[in-house]
Design a protein that fits this description.
With 297 residues, the chain is of the alpha/beta class. The chain contains 11 helices and 10 strands. The strands form 2 sheets. A 6-stranded mixed sheet has the order 1-2-10-7-8-9, sandwiched between helices. It has a 4-stranded parallel sheet with strand order 5-4-3-6. The structure holds pyridoxal-5'-phosphate (PLP).
Length: 297
């Protein structure tokens, strides 16, 4: 399998007054900058599946997601680059106009199949696909699974890794957090900010992936109403954060992640001299679902 060229993600220190006051360093690991099309944590989660598909001589990747899914977007881009056929099973009826995410996916030759929300729950593979592409390889929705975790371990292959006392990331399926937990050093703390409402199965799901007895630290209070839900407060935070730091965020994951950090600082969650690495997991393409003018970046 050829290698896709990725830039090493930069680490950018940010200098908020509260950090200076408390003598705490905040740094953002910009996974959103690794590639113009394949942004964020999705590349890390996909690569081991694609190696496996290649080793098994499977030429068609089938995966699942919604109309604005970062996972669908990244899978279509990578499969296009690597010469895999790709099929996206998309939740919901086919709309009259495709979302920008699905338009990109289609332009990268992903074949889209729309299934009703009720049918989507069982993750059906249409018979026509099975007949046309018997050599298919299935990747779970969101890249959830052990290979996703193993790929995500590479997110922590950063310079001076040991200098960070806390690593904080947004959590959807928990696959990325499982990778960070597997890759961390014993003295490092990992915190996950869950973007789903009351998804209390996460701790168990992550333990299943890592095979560890220790539960991950997941904060469940920053979902803003649930997955992909938002409030005016979230948008005004994201715009202010951008004014202060010049770092753009997405409203589904990283906006909620960044929102949590100043709150935790205020609550004295961290101690003086802590050095915090916040994982910017990408996802900016999903902001295209918002009305124009909502965000200033
Ligand atoms: C998918 C996604 C996540 C969540 O990753 P999981 O491994 O599913 O927990 C976080 N941030 C962004 C931007 C994503 O697209």
């Amino acid at each position: 399998m050829p290698e896709i060229t990725l830039l090493p993600p930069p680490i950018e220190p940010i200098n908020l007054p509260i950090c200076r006051q408390m003598n705490i360093s905040l740094n953002i690991l910009r996974l959103d900058k690794i590639h113009p099309l394949v942004s964020g944590n999705k590349w890390y989660k996909l690569k081991e599946y694609l190696k496996d598909a290649d080793a098994k001589n499977k030429k068609t990747i089938i995966t699942f997601g919604g109309a604005y899914s970062n996972h669908i977007h990244a899978t279509a881009a990578i499969c296009g680059a690597y010469g895999f056929r790709s099929v996206g099973i998309i939740r919901g009826e086919q709309p009259a106009v495709l979302s920008p995410t699905l338009t990109d996916a289609q332009n990268w030759n992903m074949e889209l199949h729309f299934v009703s929300r009720a049918d989507y729950k069982t993750k059906p593979i249409p018979d026509t696909i099975v007949q046309s592409y018997p050599d298919y390889y299935i990747i779970n929705e969101g890249g959830y699974g052990e290979k996703g975790m193993i790929g995500a371990e590479d997110i922590l292959a950063v310079p001076e890794k040991e200098s960070y006392s806390y690593i904080i990331a947004a959590v959807g399926t928990g696959t990325t957090l499982a990778g960070l937990l597997a890759a961390k050093s014993p003295q490092q703390n990992i915190i996950g900010i869950s973007v789903l409402k009351n998804n209390f199965d996460l701790e168990k799901d992550i333990q299943q992936l890592t095979g560890s007895d220790t539960a991950a630290t997941i904060l469940h209070d920053y979902h803003f109403g649930g997955y992909a839900k938002y409030t005016p407060e979230l948008f005004s935070f994201m715009n202010n954060w951008y004014r202060q730091t010049h770092i753009p965020s997405d409203f589904v994951y990283t906006g909620k992640l960044f929102f949590a950090v100043p709150q935790l600082l205020q609550q004295n969650y961290f101690a003086p001299n802590d050095n915090i690495l916040i994982v910017h997991s990408g996802g900016l393409q999903g902001n295209r679902s918002l009305p124009k003018g909502t965000l200033i970046f």
